[in-house]
């Protein structure tokens, strides 16, 4: 049986779902000849590890306990207070040091996958160390890949040791498909995608003639948006995904070189206007302009979509008119979609579409990434 050791950073919605998948798919993995050993789980404050990482992983009961503690909103430190079982809990800077120690111990010997399911920009330092120590890296977190080019280059230095399928379109095989196209020498001419479930929903509702303010309020009530919907409306999350795709195509760019259209103006930004004020008063001021754009698009046989566009040296994120009868134009609801045009996919683009968010699909993407690196393990 191949043993794949894993350290998980972040046990929010995605991280916990990953732990649950690992535990419940044990027999499936056994049939495939692999066993996943979880040798560490961390949240923003602490890290739980088995007493002897060389001998054993955290046991499944403990992993379930971690999930229930975290879904109850408690910190992982509470595990330490329980004081039972064959594990230890480290706090604060000690947990970072311990993670590095485990990377040192396992990275070059039995191998270790460092999985980042946090939403933090602080994990990048640990990831850099882990790469140096010969570890593999799997990311659901976009921030390490959208940091400086120096960080990016180091992360992808050995492409066999990094997977990040869930950073773009959750579990959808966008990165894997692109890697296959790239490695076959098929030059990618353009990528156009709708990569935000929230903005996908908003744009397709606008098409039916509903005002922006109403649609956004409804989206928030349905739980489709971040707690502050402006985090979605700013386009920043889509821009991060665009940057990851552009860098995958070899473009040497940083976040600042991406042209991003925000759906709200500067004077309504967080810090100037509260969320409530924005939703009750601010956003309604944007209704008319959007309504006119929707009508103009419609008279051209088009609909509006919030897309990322990568073509030549240009990377842009914003509202575009797209033909009603194109794959993007037909998109409804919160699905993600990516259209890739290349030499082989010229007249008709390669289209990848489906759920682009959700803890389950995202965690499934992370798990598949881990299993995909099994050949690097003894
Ligand atoms: N949910 C989706 O549909 C989806 C889809 C695609 C990609 N993603 C990405 O997947 C990641 C996780 O998403 P999520 O929804 O699970 O987020 P989340 O619920 O906010 O969970 C984030 C977790 O990371 C922990 N954390 C924060 N800083 C950390 C650090 N420095 N070291 C270790 N752990 C740290 C948090 O700890 P505390 O519990 O102590 O706060 C929390 O447990 C994000 O990067 C997100 O963008 C999510
Ligand atoms: C993901 O998990 C979080 C935390 O458990 C939860 O609040 C959220 O509703 C989940 N999202 C989905 C789409 O299941
Ligand atoms: C970690 O912090 C928790 C709560 O603050 C405390 O109960 C525990 O003793 C600390 N553990 C260590 C190893 O310092």
Automatic annotation (TrEMBL):
Residues 173-371 form the Homoserine dehydrogenase catalytic domain. Its EC number is 1.1.1.3. It is an enzyme of class 1 (oxidoreductase). NADP(+) binds at residues 10-15. GO terms for molecular function: homoserine dehydrogenase activity; NADP binding. L-homoserine binds at residue 226. The keyword Electron transport does not apply. NADPH binds at residue 142. It catalyses: L-homoserine + NADP(+) = L-aspartate 4-semialdehyde + NADPH + H(+). Keywords: Amino-acid biosynthesis, Methionine biosynthesis, NADP, Oxidoreductase, Threonine biosynthesis. Pfam families: Homoserine_dh, NAD_binding_3. Belongs to the homoserine dehydrogenase family. This is Homoserine dehydrogenase. It comes from Brassica napus (Rape).
């Amino acid at each position: 049986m191949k043993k794949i050791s894993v350290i998980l950073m972040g046990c929010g919605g995605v991280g916990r779902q990953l732990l649950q998948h690992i535990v419940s798919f044990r027999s499936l993995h056994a049939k495939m000849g692999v066993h996943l050993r979880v040798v560490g789980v961390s949240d923003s404050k602490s890290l739980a590890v088995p007493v002897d990482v060389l001998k054993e992983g955290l046991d499944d009961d403990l992993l379930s306990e971690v999930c229930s503690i975290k879904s109850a909103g408690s910190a992982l430190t509470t595990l330490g207070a329980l004081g039972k079982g064959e594990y230890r809990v480290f706090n604060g800077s000690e947990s970072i040091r311990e993670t590095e120690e485990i990377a040192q111990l396992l990275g070059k010997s039995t191998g270790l996958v460092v999985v980042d399911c946090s939403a933090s920009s602080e994990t990048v330092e640990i990831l850099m160390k882990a790469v140096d120590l010969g570890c593999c890296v799997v990311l659901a977190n976009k921030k390490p890949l959208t940091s400086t080019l120096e960080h990016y280059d180091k992360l992808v230095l050995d492409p066999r040791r990094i997977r990040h399928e869930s950073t773009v379109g959750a579990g959808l095989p966008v990165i894997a498909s692109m890697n296959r196209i790239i490695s076959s020498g098929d030059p990618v001419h353009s990528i156009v995608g709708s990569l935000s479930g929230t903005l996908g929903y908003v744009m397709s509702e606008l098409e039916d003639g509903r005002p922006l303010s109403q649609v956004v309020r409804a989206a928030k009530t349905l739980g489709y948006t971040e707690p502050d919907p402006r985090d979605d409306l700013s386009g920043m999350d889509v821009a991060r995904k665009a940057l990851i795709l552009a860098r995958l195509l070899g473009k040497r760019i940083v976040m600042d070189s991406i042209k991003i259209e925000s759906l709200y103006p500067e004077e309504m930004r967080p810090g100037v206007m509260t969320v409530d004020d924005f939703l009750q008063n601010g956003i309604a001021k944007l209704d008319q302009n959007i309504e006119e754009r929707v009508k103009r698009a419609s008279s051209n046989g088009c609909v509006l979509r919030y897309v990322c566009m990568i073509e030549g040296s240009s990377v842009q994120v914003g509202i575009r008119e797209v033909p009603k009868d194109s794959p993007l134009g037909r998109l409804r609801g919160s699905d993600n979609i990516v259209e890739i045009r290349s030499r082989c996919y010229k007249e008709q683009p390669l289209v990848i579409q489906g759920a682009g968010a959700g803890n389950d699909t995202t965690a499934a993407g992370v798990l598949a990434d881990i299993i995909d690196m099994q050949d690097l393990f003894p």
